[in-house]
Amino acid sequence: MSTLTETRVTDRPNAVVEMTYRDAINLALKDEMTADPSVVLMGEDVAASGGVFKTNEGLAEMFPGRVLTTPICENGFTGVALGMALLGMRPVVEFMFSDFLPSAGDQIVNQLPKYRFMSGGQCAVPVTIRSISGATGRFGTQHSATGESWFMSLPGLRVCAASSPAAAYELLRASIRENNPVIFHEHKGLYARKGPVIRGAAPARIGRAEVLREGRDVTIVATLLMVERSLAAADALASEGISAEVIDLRWVRPLDVATIRASVGRTGRLVIAEEQVHAGGWGATVISELTMAGAVWRSAPRAVSLPPDLCIPYSPVLEDAILPSVAKITDAARSAVKS
Amino acid sequence: MSTQPRATQLPAETLRRWYRQMVQIRIFEEKVQELFATGQVQGTTHLCQGQEAVSVGAIAAMRPGDAQTNTYRGHGEALALGMEPAVAFAELMGRATGCAKGVGGSMHLIDFSKGNIGANAIVGAGIPIALGAAMAFKMRAEPRVALTFFGDGATNIGTFHESLNMASIWHAPLVLIITNNLYAEYSALRDTAPIDDLAKRAEPHQIPALIVDGQDIEAVYANTVTAVERARGGGGPTLIEMKTYRYRGHSRSDPAKYRPDGELERWKARDPITLLGSRLAQAGMLSAEAQASIAKDVQEEIDSAAARAAQAPYPTLEETAPYVYAD
């Protein structure tokens, strides 16, 4: 376990440190819990052994009484987080798998986002849900969803998705500081990825996408694990003489339509790379928003998504087969440019 | 029923105040019916005539700084916590001067400044929210308590059992109050639960429980204050089942024809306002004439409050937008 060593190195503010996505989440929690005594971490198994995915290593020891292991009752403990937030706490609620979010459906749909509104603005609801999401882990049909678009139609809610260690550090800190409920998605297939993180870097701006690679011919928009696959696709496309721009969406709600529109305004071509079914998701909404805003398409937008009528299967061969791959994203971008 | 002795030592002034508060709730609810009939209140309403002793008696056990959640049948708790009737009527009429600026309506009479941190339209949802408030108090070592009011129907939903379990293991300063009015919406308790005494549902969660005559405001108060002060002193949660009855149907559209003949009349014979009124008259604390005078004063107060609310402006969409997100 490298967490302790890494964390010690990054005790210096503004130090740029290579760290894993897992450690970046740990550091964001540690920094926010240090900065604000009202921040608490709660959820199933969050304290024991650093949590199921080891993202919480050392926190229970560093912050006694502020890492609260809950029974297995998502709707109940999400309601508890809401009540805590109403009385001045800033809870971070870990959902062991995104697939469990619907178990808290009432609290996520009817309570967290509506609570301030239906009181006529009397309260704030600073609750962060850390949703551990995504496939590639061979976890099967009920432990592999990203769920990133399930709650995108709810006024009052923010939804973000972290694609790298730096994004995880900046987005999680922004989520915890936000005075409104946020679902922060972290992809369990990315935990071991390493990348540079600036400790003390400004928290992410709410609703701001990030252009990770500039390009002229086609715009690829992605979230979570699909971002690194899109960057790899851009490398492959470059070797064919195609210049792809890659945008990490970062926020599913609010959607940064302006950044994508500006990019598509230059390229005229769009590929959505998403680890979800296309219908009813952020990818479909991006295409809709751009079209309504008068985007001029040089070729029809494309989406590399999960199959519309298959659930995520366990068998490693099948799981790999249904996920958007570097090759599928490359093919879609190439076809957009060549058509 | 609990054998807890009545708080007969309570000052006459307190009992007279409670009497007036119960009358206020009763007349407020009757006025809501009237306003609904004339279209000034729309949508739906869930009235609490018959349950006034539970609202007033239990809330009297709270201290400043305590918090509570209630339900869509929450007008009684809101008024008992001191919401001005004109503010409550304005909310029901969708006016900008309502407690929730007119965006909440009948089911959301919320006022954080009075410890009223929630009135919820989803059955059972307010229970874990109150537990969260209790946990915030506990984590900060503040001597504050949270109460949560919910109906008999809510004891069938998951959040009730989830919250009792968490409250028990965390020893939370929480008092859970079942307003058992025998009906979950249109369905009788006997058809939706295998037991009559819902207090038994505390036992598997190792939470102490009390069964209280919810028509007797002194019993309601005495038992609630015991639970609240035990919680405040670090003694953990208590579940209190208040046996009561609602005189009206579930909501505006329900004529409550499912009730057996004579049931309503039997409960009205133990009306909480009449019970306290008789006791006060016998004790020489409040004469029948004085009670009639209170009813008349309150009727004027309520009529005037409704008339003022009806003059208040409607909110605009522009002023409503900031209620969605906090800065």
Gist?
Chain A has 339 residues and is α/β, with parallel strands linked by helices. Chain A contains 12 helices and 14 strands. Chain A has helices spanning 3-9, 21-35, 59-62, 74-86, 105-111, 115-118, 165-177, 225-239, 257-267, 282-292, 316-322, 326-338; strands at residues 16-20, 39-43, 67-69, 90-95, 128-133, 158-162, 182-187, 194-198, 210-213, 218-222, 244-248, 251-253, 270-277, 302-306.
Folded structure, characterized:
The complex is a heterodimer of chains A (339) and B (327). In chain A, the strands form 3 sheets. Chain A has a 7-stranded mixed β-sheet, with helices on both faces. A 5-stranded mixed β-sheet of chain A has the order 9-11-10-13-14, with helices on both faces. Chain A has a two-stranded antiparallel ribbon with strand order 1-8. Chain A contains 12 helices and 14 strands. The relative contact order of chain A is 0.12. In chain A, helix 7 links the parallel strand 6 and strand 7. Chain A folds into 2 domains: 196 residues, Thiamin diphosphate (ThDP)-binding fold, Pyr/PP domains (Rossmann fold, 3-Layer(aba) Sandwich), CATH 3.40.50.970; 129 residues, Rossmann fold, CATH 3.40.50.920. Helices cover 35% and strands 21% of the residues of chain A. Chain A is an alpha/beta fold. The radius of gyration of chain A is 20 Å and the shape is globular. Chain B has 327 residues and is α/β, with parallel strands linked by helices. Chain B has one domain: Thiamin diphosphate (ThDP)-binding fold, Pyr/PP domains (Rossmann fold, 3-Layer(aba) Sandwich). Chain B has 12 helices and 8 strands. In chain B, the strands form 2 sheets. Chain B has a 6-stranded parallel β-sheet, with helices on both faces. Chain B is globular. The mean pLDDT of chain B is 96. The interface between A and B is large, with 43 and 45 residues.
